[in-house]
Amino acid sequence: MSERLDDATLAAYVDGELDPDQLREIEQAISRDPEARLKVRKMREIGALLRSACSEAQFQNVPDALIQVARPRRRKRVSRWISGALAASILIAGFIGVDYAVHTQWQHEVGVMEPRSAMLDEIAAYHLVYARETEHLVEVPASRQAHIENWLGARLNRRLPVPDLTSFGMKFEGARMLVLGGYPVAQLIYSRDHGEPVAVCVTFGEQKIAPLEIAQYHGINVASWNDNGYAYVVVGALTEDAIQHIAVKVDTSLKRA
Hints:
By secondary structure, the protein is of the alpha+beta class. 48% of the residues lie in helices and 21% in strands. A hairpin with a 2-residue loop joins β2 and β3 (183-192). Mean pLDDT is 78; it is low at 55-60, 72-78 and 90-111.
């Protein structure tokens, strides 16, 4: 792995602490580095497990003294992910065997996960990171919608109009481009009056048609389907009924393109 992709850099990437230029650079580097991709997924899996294990009120705020114990002695930048994960691990490892569970389960799932499931897993993991952002929720704002449609459409070799989801109480906020397995993923992000943002993703897929399916990844619902060489994904903290209706609307909108 290159010097640029050290663990601190990958942790900052997972934390969402990079600016747009850095983010593009690191995503491109990760797409070419299998070891880095595995480390990123491992960090996200551990983070998701720790968030779930520490969701009770008594675990919401990790005491400063505990973080000091967990922090390495070397005066080196320690990301929120590293310090939080170390401190939370001390809290819960004794009674749930978190280290063993994460490593063995993660290694097994990576080895047996089908390409489609792996893609959906990555998209859900990305969404959990970006959905927490406010100022940096998107790379290009909705005010530049025409540019977004031209830019992401060119990357995917197609027209890509932004679906209008206002009937679902969702406002288009803008977009970003992810890179998974060396392929571009257009991510259109919508905010809601109540609840976290929802993302609509489009990338290259198999030529065969795959009907709409809904599954959970990292604790959130993910709707996905394939049509005419493209894969479509709707991801967010939504009920199955809600995400299905949104997916049908997205499918109808993009079929007109």
